[in-house]
Amino acid sequence: xxxxxxxxxxxxxxxxxxxxxxxxxxxxxxxxxxxxxxxxxxxxxxxxxxxxxxxxxxxxxxxxxxxxxxxxxxxxxxxxxxxxxxxxxxxxxxxxxxxxxxxxxxxxxxxxxxxxxxxxxxxxxxxxxxxxxxxxxxxxxxxxxxxxxxxxxxxxxxxxxxxxxxxxxxxxxxxxxxxxxxxxxxxxxxxxxxxxxxxxxxxxxxxxxxxxxxxxxxxxxxxxxxxxxxxxxxxxxxxxxxxxxxxxxxxxxxxxxxxxxxxxxxxxxxxxxxxxxxxxxxxxxxxxxxxxxxxxxxxxxxxxxxxxxxxxxxxxxxxxxxxxxxxxxxxxxxxxxxxxxxxxxxxxxxxxxxxxxxxxxxxxxxxxxxxxxxxxxxxxxxxxxxxxxxxxxxxxxxxxxxxxxxxxxxxxxxxxxxxxxxxxxxxxxxxxxxxxxxxxxxxxxxxxxxxxxxxxxxxxxxxxxx
Length: 466
Known about the structure:
Layout (H helix, E strand, L loop, with lengths): L1 E10 L4 E9 L2 E6 L8 E4 L4 E4 L1 E6 L4 E2 L2 E2 L6 H8 L2 E7 L9 H12 L6 E7 L5 H14 L3 E5 L8 H14 L2 E5 L3 H13 L6 H5 L3 H17 L5 E3 L5 H12 L4 E5 L1 H5 L25 H11 L3 E4 L32 H10 L6 H15 L17 E11 L18 E11 L2 E5 L2 E2 L23
Parallel strand pairs: 1-4, 1-5, 6-9, 9-10, 10-11, 11-12, 12-13, 13-14, 14-15
Antiparallel strand pairs: 1-2, 2-3, 5-16, 7-8, 16-17, 17-18, 18-19
């Protein structure tokens, strides 16, 4: 299939140019003047921006959380992603049975995703216990499966202590892989959760108050220290929600530490007053880390614009408000953690970031596509518009106005955190490997067309962003 996109404004991580884009067999072949080429399809992109398809490296599809299962599986979730302009995801695996192998989780997730995903995908490994067998198995997962990032948690049932975290960082660093970390101090969380429950303070706002900003900041600083001790092993701090934590990352980067930070749209556009919505509306926003005080938002935008926060993911993990979320109506601690966002990431950031001049077009491309692709071993196949890259593209109409609502979106859940948000600029077409799979808000691709991505090893140092 030979496709020509004409008359658009092509945006890469390095430049903005007017011109044409020619692709064949799913690969970008030519950028610029493409007159006279044989084509099967011509797309007129007059008035549109042509950008690399989004790379979301923080999703939780088909996640089992106790008795609850996320409402988006690898079909519905990737359809929603595609309609929002995302063309690749790296999904975080859920915990498995106690003592299970790394390969056990990989096999389970292939069962979830293969034949269902509509865009290309990979997985982060998950480390729920550490022993010599797990440390040895990491090498085969990296080499044979092409999974070059593994996540550890400092809270929840399978939390790792400092010694285990250090062993993981050192081993993965030696193998050319990245340690992704959920940073919250479990002792602080346990103390405040017990305090509020004992005093019958169980409404949704106490979910936020039981996970104070200092719990995140302390854990971030501690993990950066362990990373340095582990030979400057690369670490990726997921869902940074506070300016306190971002400041610690900024200082570490100034000292040439091998740390990279991610935040999410919810921490840029929502604040903890949402937990006070009437009729238990605050349950919609129970996620971890929680929403924070509004004063964090402008500071997080500053850390994005200066490059402290390299990536914006979604942490998409939806549960129905009228269903599973109601388990927390009398006790916030009973509510399943997570919220939707896989479809709204790119539209929100384009409207509120680019159109409101918080970030440039090139920085927008970097945070939603190029940086995550580089960090997770997908670049240059994914993450930018270059000759030889996959023809993963999103076309955005900067004049298109959309009011977000759950009825409008494709996420398989009964609410959106961004109900009523009025956006300027919206995706009107998504191509995956040169195939138009979304057009004017409708998914027109085929179930199961997504391919599993074996990722490259990445010795992620500060030089990767130069």
